[in-house]
């Protein structure tokens, strides 16, 4: 008789069998992966085209550097065999971590970095902290950064590699790879340290010797650079003896440091040559005359010549003594009260004797002291007056320095629209061959670009500056300033490992100088960055160094703001590391005396963070409230889109921290109001404290006004919901440690935390956009990344969006540019199959499209502008644009068409304010700073005219209900975001246009023509802009599956 088997035993047997099968399957996968790895390791070494190491590969000489995809016929036999094995394994298990890694590594070896990035991102989702996958992903980003000159990819590579090193600190492969990336980014100190460790720990001779050689090369570079600047300047006697005014060949010894001699002459030679008591130093007089000739003939600078040869030069003693005191106090002692007083004495003395050159130099020292004493309004006025006076003379050193200080003064008053002074300083200093001031101006330009969110532009200026610095002989302080500027650029993107490396590099250049405040500030910045990079021990070391430096410096009224910044940051870091509490923050009496809005904003933001860490939630909210009130005060000075975006990058932190606390305590409505206030692009609603900018700040007035503004925002948000009906508003906010999605419908507001790591989501979003923007990219990769991002960004709020016909998306800056329409749901449908999408820049003014009536009808007054570029040199003509414009015009009997030579900027600007809809088809161009529509040249000119955000000026375009920009990459500003200051989309919306449709990347003109035809026909059937675009996308997709062809265009509009 058969024995019955119980159900539990039966299930156990099945489970055991499945486990055995799975075990054998896994073993088989491991064996297959081992075979693939072996082939990949061989392929890596013969020939070696990648400077970074591949796990398991033997050392070989780096024979050639690939910079793009290696063609199939150029691949080695080992690589081809490896790819065949990898393909077989991947086909059997396309979602396995081992298979994804192997395929990604094969892609690395053929420099198919985009495909490798896709594979490794998916693998990292399975094992988020795997050092091996982090290293693989870092290598892929490094490849892309090298091939495309993309700084952000290189920073991503460094961040990922540092995470891997932090998890496995003694791994020589990880250290070697980080050293390569660090060198490429100009982090020479970090690169040397990593290569030193590799040379000591690495057991394989080839890798150890390569590391040692790289270390020695950088050590030699650093030694040479320090030697150029490390020696003492010539004394006045040595200068007079060696520099012959009539023999330019004798000037070569002093030219590399001529700007330092200008400063030395002011501080020491002038008072020695014209003493108050005793005999004049004839060597000093000879040196001054020789230097004056070097400056005039070599640099076009007559300042010293005029100072020495103007009437009254024999009576210079009192004036030059005061000027020397001022220069030493300002530049060496950092005693700005003494510097300002001495400069005023010198200015009066020079003016009395009619020595205009001396008077202007003294005025500059007074300006410099005022700027560093945080007297923003005073120094702005002084700088303006000094610039006017300098226009009448040829004093390029003074003119360039004054332009730079004017920029600083304007920033102190909250005026962000001052970058023209930086370009002027750079032009003047370059023309005069003043390398130090030119480098300083370049550094300021980089900082300005970073502050405006133009990371690529900021890095471009910074990298030029770093190259100039290491090849030059300027004072080491210039290098320090360059590296601290790049620190700001990486802080903007929360790249804390890079922040630490750049900060350490900066500090190494000034560690022995006599400016303890600057060194203390850098140590504190490093303490903060180290903590965020999860290195508390390093953070404490820098904190103690900063405190030691502060203790050695006597307090003064001018340095109080600086000292308060240090004390505030110190208190926060000590609280986080458990060594102190918020009790050590500056006292209220000290705070009441501060007038600098940035110092106060930093104080309240940092105090709020400390209180939040200690669990004092309501007190922390109060501190953030004060910081936001100051931010709104600063917003009052803004006069342009560029100013407002720069303000956003500088002041967003307290808003986000306050939002975070409100969400954690369940105050969703309040959190949303704070977010909308932050994103509000209109002029600030708060009145200026006491009536004008730069006066003493009245916190109570500002905070009362802030309370009213927030109440108004909450009321507006409540009014938005009834207008949504069958629509939903989807907002994304990147908080300090997470991304939050807000789904707002007629029924209410729901928030969801995106579970994935915020930085990983940002990187993956950027990759997905780039895959979509290139028709040659793999549809498999597009699909994989689209599904992955859908699961991370949409799935958490999917239930709230299910009934929405239209989804209005307001993106956080870090997620800008993601083509949401191409995200793929688990069922395989694109997001735009279920929802029409429109991008908005704020919830406050959203209304339903259908509520405002049809956007266009057959009676709409349409302006069509078409320019093929056929008459322009260097432009590939677009043969079908005129036909496309005329095709669209047939749909609108009242259409007016400007084609080819008729389509000039003046003609367009004349017609556009009267139009109800505008359609541009043709070329778009970018010069790295702005995007422009290419128009025909004006009469009498051979150059094409450009329609840019700037050329729109103050045009009133309220009658234009729809503008369509059917050209390449017409959304973007510097960062390909419609919200950048130089974005045409933002400019058109800001001047009254209701809806804008624009492309996010280069488009195929023939496909676009068919898509636009479908779009306008949908509009004429009564569809809204977003619905018409979704329908046109779906129709286009039936013929061209790749998102490059159908997902480029987006609808924008705040009604």
UniProtKB/TrEMBL annotation:
Residue ranges of every copy of the CHAT domain listed in the record: 786-1053
InterPro entries per the UniProt record, alphabetical: CHAT_dom, TPR-like_helical_dom_sf, TPR_rpt
SUPFAM superfamilies, A to Z: TPR-like
Pfam families linked to this entry: CHAT
Source organism superkingdom: Bacteria
PANTHER family, per the entry: RAPSYN-RELATED (PTHR10098), TETRATRICOPEPTIDE REPEAT PROTEIN 28 (PTHR10098:SF108)
Name of the protein described by the UniProt record: TPR repeat protein
């Amino acid at each position: 008789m058969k024995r019955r088997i119980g159900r539990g035993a039966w299930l156990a047997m099945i489970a055991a069998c499945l486990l055995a099968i799975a075990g054998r399957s896994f073993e088989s996968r491991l064996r297959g992966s081992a075979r693939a790895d072996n082939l990949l390791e061989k392929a890596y070494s013969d020939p070696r085209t990648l400077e970074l190491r591949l796990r398991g590969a033997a050392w070989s000489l780096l024979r050639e550097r690939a910079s793009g995809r290696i063609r199939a016929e150029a691949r080695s036999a080992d690589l081809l065999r490896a790819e065949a094995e990898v393909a077989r394994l991947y086909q059997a298990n396309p979602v396995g971590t081992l298979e994804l890694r192997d395929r990604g590594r094969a892609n690395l070896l053929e420099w198919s970095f985009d495909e490798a990035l896709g594979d490794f991102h998916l693998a990292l989702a399975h094992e988020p902290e795997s050092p091996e996958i982090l290293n693989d992903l870092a290598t892929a980003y490094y490849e892309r950064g090298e091939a495309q000159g993309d700084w952000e990819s290189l920073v991503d590579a460094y961040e990922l590699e540092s995470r891997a090193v932090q998890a496995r600190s003694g791994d020589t492969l990880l250290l070697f790879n980080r050293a390569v990336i660090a060198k490429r980014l100009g982090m020479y100190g970090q690169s040397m340290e990593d290569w030193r460790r590799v040379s000591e720990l690495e057991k394989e001779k080839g890798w150890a010797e390569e590391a040692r050689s790289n270390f020695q090369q950088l050590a030699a570079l650093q030694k040479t650079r320090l030697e150029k600047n490390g020696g003492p300047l010539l004394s006045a006697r040595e200068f007079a003896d060696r520099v012959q005014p009539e023999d330019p060949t004798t000037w070569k010894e002093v030219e590399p440091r001529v700007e330092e001699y200008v400063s030395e002459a002011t501080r020491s030679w002038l008072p020695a040559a014209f003493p108050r008591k005793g005999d004049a130093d004839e060597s000093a007089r000879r040196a001054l005359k020789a230097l004056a000739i070097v400056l005039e003939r070599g640099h076009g600078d007559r300042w010293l010549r005029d100072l020495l040869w103007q009437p009254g030069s024999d009576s210079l003693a009192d004036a030059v003594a005061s000027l020397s005191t001022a220069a030493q106090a300002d530049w060496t002692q950092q005693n700005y009260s003494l510097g300002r007083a001495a400069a005023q004495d010198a200015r009066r003395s020079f003016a009395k004797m009619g020595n205009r050159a001396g008077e202007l130099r003294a005025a500059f020292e007074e300006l410099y002291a005022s700027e560093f004493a945080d007297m923003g309004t005073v120094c702005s006025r002084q700088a303006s007056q000094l610039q006017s006076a300098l226009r009448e003379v040829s004093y390029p050193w003074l003119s360039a320095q004054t332009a730079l200080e004017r920029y600083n003064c304007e920033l102190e008053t909250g005026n962000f629209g001052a970058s023209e002074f930086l370009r002027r300083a750079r032009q003047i200093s370059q023309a005069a061959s003043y390398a130090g001031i030119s480098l300083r101006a370049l550094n300021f330009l980089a900082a300005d670009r970073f502050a405006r969110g133009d990371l690529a532009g900021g890095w471009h200026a910074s990298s030029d500056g770093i190259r100039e610095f290491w090849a030059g002989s300027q004072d080491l302080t210039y290098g320090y300033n360059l590296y601290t500027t790049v620190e700001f650029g990486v802080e903007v993107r929360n790249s804390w490992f890079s922040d630490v490396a750049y900060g350490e590099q900066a500090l190494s250049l000034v560690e022995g100088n006599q400016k303890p405040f600057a060194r203390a500030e850098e140590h504190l910045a490093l303490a903060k960055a180290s903590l965020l990079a999860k290195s508390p021990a390093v953070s404490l070391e820098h904190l103690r160094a900063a405190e030691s430096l502060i203790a050695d410096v006597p307090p003064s009224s001018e340095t109080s703001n600086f000292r308060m910044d240090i004390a505030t940051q110190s208190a926060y870091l000590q609280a986080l590391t458990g060594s102190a509490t918020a009790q050590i923050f500056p006292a209220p009496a000290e705070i009441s005396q501060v007038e600098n809005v940035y110092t106060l904003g930093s104080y309240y933001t940092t105090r709020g963070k400390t209180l939040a860490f200690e669990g004092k939630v309501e007190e922390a909210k109060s501190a953030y409230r004060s910081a936001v009130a100051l931010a709104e005060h600063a917003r009052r000075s803004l006069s342009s889109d560029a100013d407002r975006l720069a303000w956003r990058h500088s002041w967003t932190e307290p808003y986000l921290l306050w939002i975070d606390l409100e969400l954690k305590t369940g105050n969703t409505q309040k959190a949303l109001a704070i977010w909308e206030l932050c994103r509000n692009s209109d002029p600030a609603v708060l009145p200026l404290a006491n009536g004008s900018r730069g006066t003493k700040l009245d916190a109570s007035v500002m905070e009362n006004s802030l309370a009213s503004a927030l109440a108004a925002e909450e009321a507006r948000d409540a009014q938005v919901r009834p207008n949504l009906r069958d629509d939903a508003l989807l907002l994304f906010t990147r908080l300090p440690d997470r991304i939050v999605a807000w789904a707002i419908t007629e029924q209410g507001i729901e928030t969801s935390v995106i579970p994935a790591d915020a930085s990983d989501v940002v990187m993956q979003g950027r990759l997905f956009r780039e895959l979509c923007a290139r028709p040659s990219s793999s549809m498999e990769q597009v699909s994989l990344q689209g599904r992955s991002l859908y699961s991370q960004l949409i799935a958490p709020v999917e239930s709230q969006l299910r009934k929405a016909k239209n989804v209005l998306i307001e993106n956080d800056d870090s997620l800008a540019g993601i083509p949401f329409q191409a995200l793929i749901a688990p069922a395989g449908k694109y997001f735009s199959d279920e929802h029409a999408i429109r991008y908005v820049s704020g919830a406050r003014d959203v209304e339903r499209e259908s509520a405002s009536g049809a956007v266009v009808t057959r009676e709409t007054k349409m302006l069509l502008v078409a320019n093929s570029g056929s008459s322009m040199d260097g432009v590939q003509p677009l043969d079908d644009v005129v036909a496309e414009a005329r095709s669209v015009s047939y749909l609108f009997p009242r259409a007016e068409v400007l084609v080819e030579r008729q389509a000039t900027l003046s003609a367009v600007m004349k017609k556009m304010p009267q139009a109800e809809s505008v359609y541009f088809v043709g070329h778009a161009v970018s010069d790295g700073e702005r995007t422009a529509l290419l128009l025909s040249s004006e009469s009498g000119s051979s150059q094409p005219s450009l329609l840019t955000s700037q050329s729109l000026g103050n045009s009133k375009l309220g009658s234009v209900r729809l503008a369509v920009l059917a050209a390449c990459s017409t959304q973007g500003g510097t960062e390909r975001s419609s919200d950048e200051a130089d974005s045409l989309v933002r400019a058109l919306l800001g001047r009254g246009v209701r809806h804008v449709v624009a492309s996010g990347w280069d488009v195929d003109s023939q496909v676009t023509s068919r898509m636009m035809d479908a779009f306008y026909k949908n509009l004429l059937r009564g569809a809204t802009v977003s619905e018409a675009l979704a329908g046109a996308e779906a129709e286009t997709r039936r013929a061209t599956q790749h998102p490059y062809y159908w997902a480029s265009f987006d609808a924008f509009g705040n009604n």
